[in-house]
Design brief:
Layout: H1 3-20, H2 27-42, H3 45-67, H4 80-96, H5 102-118, H6 121-159
Helix pairs in contact: 1-2, 1-6, 2-3, 2-6, 3-6, 4-5, 4-6, 5-6
Length: 160
């Protein structure tokens, strides 16, 4: 696969990661479609193994999300800056401390956003608890799975 196509696949994966944090956007399926597109063009054993593993992981995540309590967005106070800060925190945490760093990064991003908005630490902590109960768990599970698939794809591409 040539460089322009690799960049397009990377863009699809990035859009999928962003789509995970936006309600109604099929972010997980965009990540899977990007890996599928890459595997169909790459046709190597590593590509097929990654496609099969990604498919299994993302299907398991869909079942887990279905089993989690539903997202309750009304009245929680989720705003665009919070979504951006939470996503940026998760990605930064994932890069700094691979895989497990996404969780504290996500929560830290929500806290930072709420601290800037509300001003006090106590109110920000209360808001983080409310947000995490409402949507944090399902978004975090989905984002962590998509970050893992994207990192595995990047590792295979760089290693090849």
């Amino acid at each position: 696969m040539d460089l322009p196509q690799l960049l397009l696949v990377g863009l699809v994966l990035l859009l999928g990661l962003l789509g995970v944090m936006v309600p109604g956007v099929p972010g997980t399926w965009l990540v899977w479609a990007g890996v599928l597109w890459w595997a169909l063009h790459e046709r190597s054993s590593a590509a097929w193994i990654l496609l099969v593993a990604s498919t299994g992981l993302l299907l398991v995540v869909q079942v887990v999300i279905w089993l989690l309590p539903p997202r309750r967005l009304r009245g929680v106070g989720i705003h665009r800056r919070m979504v951006v800060c939470a996503g940026a925190g998760a990605v930064l945490g994932f890069v700094l401390v691979p895989v497990v760093g996404a969780v504290p990064g996500f929560v830290g991003g929500v806290y930072l956003s709420e601290r800037l908005r509300l001003g006090s630490s106590g109110e920000a902590r209360t808001s983080v608890r409310v947000v995490m109960r409402a949507v944090g768990t399902s978004v975090l599970v989905e984002l962590l799975a998509c970050l893992t698939v994207t990192a595995a794809w990047a590792g295979v591409v760089v290693g090849a």
